[in-house]
Amino acid sequence: MDKQAQLDKVKAMILEGNVCPDLAAQATNLVMGDGNVNADIVFIGEAPGKNEDEQGLPFVGAAGKFLNEMLAAAGMDRSDVYITNIVKYRPPNNRDPLPEEKKAFWPFLLKQLQIIEPKVVITLGRHSMEYFLPGLYISQIHGQAKRIQFGDHKLVVVPLYHPAAALYNGSLRQTLIDDFLSVPEIIKKLETASE
Description:
Shape: globular
Order of helices and strands: HHEEHHEHEHHEEHHH
Strand content: 15-25%
Number of strands: 6
CATH architecture: 3-Layer(aba) Sandwich
Oligomer: single chain
Largest sheet: 6 strands, mixed
CATH topology: Uracil-DNA Glycosylase, subunit E
């Protein structure tokens, strides 16, 4: 079974399992992910917003536009990467996802990562970071590559601020751009180390 078919199966499991029925009831779409299923890089945000819920795709609103700009600045294209969120339904009024909502969706995110097998996971914001790097603060480790054990192999996690945070807080904007521009260098080092 190809990777897209496996990802479609994960989506079907969420729908059939009625994961987070309260969120599902008020959402327009289940927002699974978008991009290259063979990507070396997977970006993980927290949850869909209004535009994402309407279109059924992650990061298509203002934060997504900023993400696309940063990808271009780093010499990457959205079609080269895979983008998803922990929580797959929009929380009401764009509130932060609740701990139990993140916990309910976590196994499905892990399945997505096991199928795609990225070299690097870039967490966007503290909600996705805290699962891979518990007990750490994004303000202290943003932009730093961390190697963690993930199942049978090691995975590189790079925590970044969420693009939405940079839109609301101008001082974070340049920090996020600088961190983002270091990603190709991190990947180059990984490729050199594995040769």
